[in-house]
Amino acid sequence: MTDQDQTLPETARLPRQAGTENVSPRTGVSRRRLLGTAGATGLALGAAGAAAGYAAAAPAGAAPLTSLGAGRAKFHGKHQPGITDALQSCGHLIAFDLAAGAGRTEAAALLRRWSTTAERLMAGEPAPHGDTDVARDAGPSSLTITFGFGHSFFDRTGLQKQRPAALDPLPDFSSDHLDKARSNGDLWVQIGADDALVAFHALRAIQKDAGGAARIRWQMNGFNRSPGATARPMTARNLMGQIDGTGNPKPTDSDFAQRIFVPGDGTPSWMANGSYAVVRRIRMLLDDWEKLSPAQQENVIGRRKSDGAPLTGGTETTEMDLEKTDKNGEYVIPVNAHARITRPDQNGGAAMLRRPFSYHDGYDADGTPDAGLLFICWQADPLRGFVPVQRKLDRGDALSQYIRHEASGLFAVPGGAAKGEYVGERLLEG
């Protein structure tokens, strides 16, 4: 869970320099005023703006945390939000099944409602009806809302001929201990924000909008490190304490789009500029992991725990020397190290953009923490992205004895909605 397909760095949402914004303290600041500040200072972040998040340099100064509320992602665009945007500190994943008797007409009406709500909430405005006022005092806080369709959605709506071949169910893996009640679903929604109340507000609005057209199948909550929590921009750490995201594909890579997004002339046509999301609830067996010494943990991963550099030396971004051996002739990076196995050049170039959240759902009766990773990865085709890498991990990843895959889903996420469109309109009304 820590190399080629990992989480985005935090730098895409760095605070601006102190003194460059006119942002008032949180007390007494209206959402409208915060939005005005966002527009004046150019804090808007869309898919294109997210690429700037890979810059290595940090601002000279730090802005107050209240400035985080002004961050705004775009709802309309070539791609849906929540894919290339920087990691947010709070997240919710929720899957729905269409209600009995609901079909294509009801689904279209639901996606229209959801799109209207998402557009308003991402702009920092109240929900179009029945707003709960939970986020009344906050700015948009980089809120993103993303929608996808599961394999079963096409049966429920009579659109089987429009179902992509890439949406075929994932194969079974030896590390799977899947709870079917918390897997798959007709519809999937990903919500992320840099404020917990803003994220919950969106979750509640989406659930209320479902009305009688769809019922909740499962719902999960996650978190990441807050923007500005470190002295300098850093790749995030997971609950094992490992730097997690070093080798993620970047929008600046020449082949980024072809790896992550369906081509504009792709098949089926309604998926143009869309992507496929694999969602896995991966429980970390932290009691077992924490019994290992730091050196043993590093051998499992193949990277230094302190700074994410490969065991063969250098910095976090230094290429691994997979052929380097120690004085005993053993590989410095073990053959079953997670970082070695997941490298794209060890998997026929397979790559995926990971954008997960950590989770903690309390403790079992014996005190064992129910905690781990809400794994979300994006790719143009899961049969060329997630599946070959996971199959290889299944055959001998040293990390596998410290994790357990407990839920799974695969969703087709169409391209972004143009002005005047709703997400999925080209499928449901094409």
From TrEMBL:
<dbReference type="InterPro" id="IPR011008">
    <property type="entry name" value="Dimeric_a/b-barrel"/>
</dbReference>
<keyword id="KW-0479">Metal-binding</keyword>
<dbReference type="GO" id="GO:0005829">
    <property type="term" value="C:cytosol"/>
</dbReference>
<dbReference type="InterPro" id="IPR048328">
    <property type="entry name" value="Dyp_perox_C"/>
</dbReference>
<comment type="similarity">
    <text>Belongs to the DyP-type peroxidase family.</text>
</comment>
<dbReference type="GO" id="GO:0004325">
    <property type="term" value="F:ferrochelatase activity"/>
</dbReference>
<dbReference type="InterPro" id="IPR006311">
    <property type="entry name" value="TAT_signal"/>
</dbReference>
<feature type="domain" description="Dyp-type peroxidase N-terminal">
    <location>
        <begin position="80"/>
        <end position="224"/>
    </location>
</feature>
<dbReference type="InterPro" id="IPR006313">
    <property type="entry name" value="EfeB/EfeN"/>
</dbReference>
<protein>
    <recommendedName>
        <fullName>Deferrochelatase</fullName>
        <ecNumber>1.11.1.-</ecNumber>
    </recommendedName>
</protein>
<keyword id="KW-0560">Oxidoreductase</keyword>
<keyword id="KW-0349">Heme</keyword>
<dbReference type="GO" id="GO:0030313">
    <property type="term" value="C:cell envelope"/>
</dbReference>
<feature type="region of interest" description="Disordered">
    <location>
        <begin position="1"/>
        <end position="28"/>
    </location>
</feature>
<comment type="function">
    <text>Involved in the recovery of exogenous heme iron. Extracts iron from heme while preserving the protoporphyrin ring intact.</text>
</comment>
<dbReference type="Pfam" id="PF20628">
    <property type="entry name" value="Dyp_perox_C"/>
</dbReference>
<keyword id="KW-0732">Signal</keyword>
<keyword id="KW-0408">Iron</keyword>
<dbReference type="GO" id="GO:0020037">
    <property type="term" value="F:heme binding"/>
</dbReference>
<dbReference type="Pfam" id="PF04261">
    <property type="entry name" value="Dyp_perox_N"/>
</dbReference>
<keyword id="KW-0456">Lyase</keyword>
<keyword id="KW-0575">Peroxidase</keyword>
<dbReference type="InterPro" id="IPR006314">
    <property type="entry name" value="Dyp_peroxidase"/>
</dbReference>
<dbReference type="GO" id="GO:0033212">
    <property type="term" value="P:iron import into cell"/>
</dbReference>
<dbReference type="InterPro" id="IPR048327">
    <property type="entry name" value="Dyp_perox_N"/>
</dbReference>
<dbReference type="GO" id="GO:0004601">
    <property type="term" value="F:peroxidase activity"/>
</dbReference>
<dbReference type="GO" id="GO:0046872">
    <property type="term" value="F:metal ion binding"/>
</dbReference>
<feature type="domain" description="Dyp-type peroxidase C-terminal">
    <location>
        <begin position="235"/>
        <end position="417"/>
    </location>
</feature>
